[in-house]
Design a protein that fits this description.
Length: 138
């Protein structure tokens, strides 16, 4: 296991209090084994999965408009994700995650208050996870 953003003991404690856990990871890690939803996506397709989840939230009008208007700059830039090209059914062929599971997770996340996203350290698992760019001084 490369990174454990929340310890399994804490996950179990939160679950007893009603928390729901969704894990997007190609592997069945100890955290994924504790999850209510394990989105076992193909490596490198996490951006597509994110667009599929966002598609459901946008199309279903499931986001908190008052929060978004007060705190999110240029939320309208996400509108292209509502296009059918980003529907979970289209993403399923690429990510390997069932469209029905994507829809369940998106609705669960959008309807949970409060909710949060924790990001692990997946970038360095890709060969080009952090390539040098022209803006770097070397």
């Amino acid at each position: 296991m490369s990174n454990e953003p929340v310890a399994p003991k804490e996950i179990r404690r939160l679950a007893r209090r009603g928390a729901v856990l969704a894990v997007a990871d190609p592997r069945r890690t100890p955290t994924a084994a504790l999850a209510d939803y394990h989105l076992a996506l193909r490596p490198g397709t996490d951006g597509i999965l994110a667009a599929n989840l966002l598609h459901v939230i946008l199309r279903g009008d499931l986001w908190d408009r008052s929060f978004t208007e007060a705190w999110v700059h240029d939320f309208a830039a996400l509108e292209p994700a509502a296009d059918d090209r980003y529907a979970p059914e289209a993403g399923e062929r690429v990510t390997g995650v069932a469209a029905a599971l994507v829809r369940r997770v998106a609705v669960a996340y959008a309807s949970t208050k409060p909710a949060c996203l924790l990001v692990g350290n997946g970038l360095e698992h890709h060969g080009q996870g952090s390539p040098p760019c022209a803006c770097w001084p070397f």
